[in-house]
Design goal:
heterodimer, A: 115 residues, mainly alpha, Four Helix Bundle (Hemerythrin (Met), subunit A), 74% helix, 0% strand, B: 307 residues, alpha/beta, five-stranded parallel β-sheet, five-stranded mixed β-sheet, 10 strands, elongated, Rev_trsase/Diguanyl_cyclase (chain B)
Chain lengths: 115, 307
């Protein structure tokens, strides 16, 4: 099941929000207004070895990603969060993967809904 | 059967406090509940504790992972304070691991939902918790209040007084205790009948309650026509002002009583103070108030006697 994750599961996100499209659009707006700053915060904290802080930011971002239907990003951030909890050297690599996922999500989600 | 009784409260009169550091989560939860109940959202546990110090919500929905203070720490802080101990806390968590679930229950949570939230599940879980809360409040009201007058009952006093005393001890604050008795009430009942006597008790209780002014003050009906006034954080000088206001409020009711030398319903009050670290026990202070009540009676009634 987890392998079936998609970049932007708009229908899933909408279903969870009782098909409230206005609400989903507002959440996306808030998400995009904060995501890039949070990513750079995570990068900075990883570089400075502040793993606890980086983990907390990744956790928050992961939650928001799940809410907007960014399934693959949600999973990537979950992996990053775990790596940061374990002080794993993989954190930097996972961060980069998450950034790529974010860019793909951003591209898809900012397109007008096609139906 | 009791639970089918109309509580007079509906879900949309309840208040839910949402605590989450993520603005998207706050927006989602508030939007999903706005047609069900009253919502207030805050971004952290400290704000939540401040909110609860001012007013008690019927349910708190809290994120688990938050900077500074976690949702579980918030729940423990609420449980350790008598006035907030009974607010149900539902957790919203990004993790549904066994360990996370255990921790949520251990902290005193009543339920948890996982993020991303499924609207239908979330709304139904919240409705269930609020319905429980409404019924629990009703039961507490039925258990702790005197059905005739609406004052707290003796059971309330026996259960809650130790906590009130403990809180005063912890804060090193005085607790004034007054015993109030209606003068010549037996004669009143003999003259006007028990139904009118009951009506008199109700009017008098309402008036005494109004005269207390602060929500933390309590009127407890401890006997037929005898009431205990609990005045936390009030020293003897403050309590004298309150008791004199009570005497005056009762006089102003002008309830006719031809069997009394005053020709109207009056009360006598004995006032004593529990001092933390000095007083032996609340029971001893109540006994002292009782003696002073008799002193007020023997001195002619319709007056206050204090230590």
């Amino acid at each position: 099941m987890s392998d079936a994750l998609i970049t932007f599961n708009r229908d899933g996100a909408l279903r969870r929000l009782m098909n409230n499209e206005t609400l989903l659009n507002r959440i996306l707006e808030i998400f995009f207004s904060q995501a890039e700053e949070r990513f750079s915060q995570i990068r900075q904290d990883i570089q400075l070895g502040r793993y606890t802080e980086a983990r907390a930011t990744a956790h928050g971002l992961k939650g928001s990603a799940g809410e907007v239907g960014a399934e693959r990003l949600h999973r990537c951030l979950g992996d990053l969060e775990k790596a940061l909890t374990d002080n794993s050297t993989q954190a930097e690599e996972l961060y980069k993967v998450a950034v790529v996922e974010y860019q793909q999500f951003s591209q898809q989600a900012r397109q007008p809904a096609s139906n | 059967m009791i639970l089918k009784q109309d509580t007079g409260r509906t879900l949309n009169a309840c208040t839910v406090l949402i605590v989450d550091d993520q603005p998207t989560s706050r927006l989602i939860m508030t939007s999903l509940l706005e047609d069900i109940t009253q919502c207030h959202a805050v971004a952290g546990a400290t704000e939540a504790l401040d909110y609860c110090a001012a007013q008690l919500p019927d349910l708190i929905i809290s994120d688990v992972s938050m900077p500074e203070m976690s949702g579980r720490e918030l729940c423990e802080a609420l449980r350790s304070n008598q006035s907030t101990a009974n607010i149900p806390v539902m957790f919203v968590t990004g993790s549904d691991s066994d360990e996370e679930q255990e921790k949520c229950w251990e902290a005193g949570g009543v339920d948890f939902v996982t993020k991303p939230i499924n609207a239908t599940t979330f709304r139904n879980r919240v409705k269930t918790q609020l319905n429980h809360k409404i019924k629990a409040d009703l039961l507490e009201q039925l258990i702790y209040t005197d059905r005739l007058t609406g004052a707290f009952n003796r059971h309330y006093m026996e259960e809650r007084l130790p906590f009130i005393v403990k809180e005063c001890e912890r804060e090193s604050l005085p607790l004034s205790i007054a015993l109030l008795d209606i003068d010549f009430f037996k004669q009143y009942n003999d003259e006007y009948g028990h139904l009118t006597g009951d009506e008199c008790l109700c009017r008098l209780t309402r008036a005494v309650n109004d005269a207390l002014l602060r929500p933390m003050d309590r009127v407890v009906r401890v006997g037929g026509e005898e009431f205990l006034l609990l005045l936390p954080n009030t020293d003897i000088d403050g309590a004298k002002i309150v008791c004199n206001r009570v005497l005056e409020t009762v006089r102003r009711l002008h309830i006719p009583h031809i069997g009394s030398p005053f020709r109207e319903i009056t009360v006598s009050i004995g006032l004593a103070m529990y001092q933390s670290g000095i007083s032996e026990s609340a029971t001893v202070v109540i006994a002292e108030a009782d003696k002073l009540l008799y002193k007020a009676k023997n001195a002619g009634r319709n007056q206050l006697a204090y230590e």
